[in-house]
Amino acid sequence: MPALFPAHSLTAVSEKIRAGGRLTGGEALTLFESEDFDALSEIGSAARAARHGRSAFYTVNRHINYSNICVLDCDFCAFGKRKREEGAYELTIDEMTARAKEALAMGATEIHIVGGLHPAWKFSVYLEMLRSLRELSPSLGIKAFTAIEILHFSWLAKTSVERVLEQLKEAGLSCLTGGGAEIFAPNVRDRICRGKESGGEWLAVHRAAHGLGIPSTATMLFGHVESYEDRIDHLQKLRELQDETGGFMAFLPLAFKPAHRLSHLMGPEEGEILKNTAACRAYLDNFPHIKSYWISYGLDLAGRTLAFGADDIDGTVGDELIYHMAGADSPVSQTAESLRRTILNAGLEPVLRDSFYREL
Ligand code: SF4
User: Fold this and answer.
1) Number of alpha carbons in the 13 Å side-chain half-sphere of residue 301
2) What residue ranges do the domains of the chain occupy?
3) Is the minimum distance from the CB of 69 to ligand 1 under 6 angstroms?
4) CB atoms within 10 A of CB 138
5) Each residue of 224-276: pLDDT tens digit?
6) How remote is the CA of residue 317 from the centroid of ligand 1, in Å?
7) Does residue 115's CB lie within 6 angstroms of at least one atom of ligand 1?
8) How far does Cα 93 stand from its chain's mean position?
9) Rounded distance, CA 179 to CA 174, Å?
10) Which atom of ligand 1 is nearest to the CA of 115?
11) Nearest ligand 1 atom to alpha carbon 70
12) Is ligand 1 within 6 A of the CB of residue 70?
């Protein structure tokens, strides 16, 4: 049952943000329901500028999706396949290290690794994967695995989430990815990814990671069957966990791409993406960075979100499969120069960063 929020005026919300106040759920709803894009842009930009001045971030990275074979079958997912299904694949560790070497040679400072919940691989495979990648470079940022993968490893290894994370960290893990958060509200989760971990479990994995000094990213999949109240509930839980641990480096809103059993739905339109950026930036006052994932939005629109509060357009990526198997028409990679140019065209200063937002 969505929460009921009292109405607020956009001017009052804007003044509260300017004065450094923390938004209530009702005030966030005012932003989500507004059609005043000039005011939303002003609010989002002011919140971005207060944290980062004229800087906007990008990175040189490489995605490696080790396998799409998955024991689950989330309704929105066009990436996951059964073992013998057409299009199912798995990479060897040698193939992964070859891709990572290629990326390092091209100046990448981060490898981003996620995949399906493989039915046959043991936990030791993932530890070996990390060790082999870590051997390539002690300074490479290895951002890997979503919360559901961590829970899967815990089940495979018959040990606690904390012990799994400790072993992954020892093997070379730098930080956790933010995938799988979707929308925390149980009634929405039931409709888009029944059988996946609950919102509470996703938050518990990230809490455990932060407790072990493993930072992470948070995501929200928006623009499908959720209401604005569901989004606010999701953001509230993220803001509370961030108050508790401070372990999230960034928030990444992911635009829903109609696919698989949800291919009959519409994804969010451009205005909705811009508005969502501003509302999330304003509400998540304890998150340092709001990412705009060009794979999800397309590079032009990702550039325009910089005027609504985003401050990071992610990386060069290369080899992205999860959105592209759902039919994304963005390219699979960008050059560092095209990311820089996008930031400059938005009137901001491009800052090349590593996985931990250190300027390079
Ligand atoms: S979203 Fe992840 S867990 Fe769900 S089916 Fe796809 S790969 Fe598997």
Assistant:
1) 18
2) 10-352
3) no
4) 7
5) 999 999 999 999 999 999 999 999 999 999 999 999 999 999 999 999 999 99
6) 20
7) no
8) 25
9) 16
10) 7
11) 8
12) yes
Q: Which two tokens stand for residue 3?
A: 């929460």
**How far is the C-alpha of 231 from the C-alpha of 31, rounded, in Å?**
12
135 class by beta-carbon count within 10 Å (0-12 exposed, 13-18 middle, 19+ buried): exposed
Specify the CATH class of 10-352 in words. Answer: alpha beta
What do you get for the CA distance between the two ends of the chain, in Å?
46
Amino acid occupying residue 99: R
To the question of pTM greater than 0.90 for the whole model, the response is yes
Cα-based torsion angle of the residue sequence 319, 323, 325, 327 in order, rounded to the nearest 10 degrees: -120
Dist CA 124 CA 353 (whole Å)? 31
Stated length of the chain: 360
Beta bridge partners of 251: 218, 290
Smallest CA-to-CA distance from 211 within 174, 166, 172, 168 is with 166
With tokens 């340092």, the residue in question is: 288
Residue type, 18: R
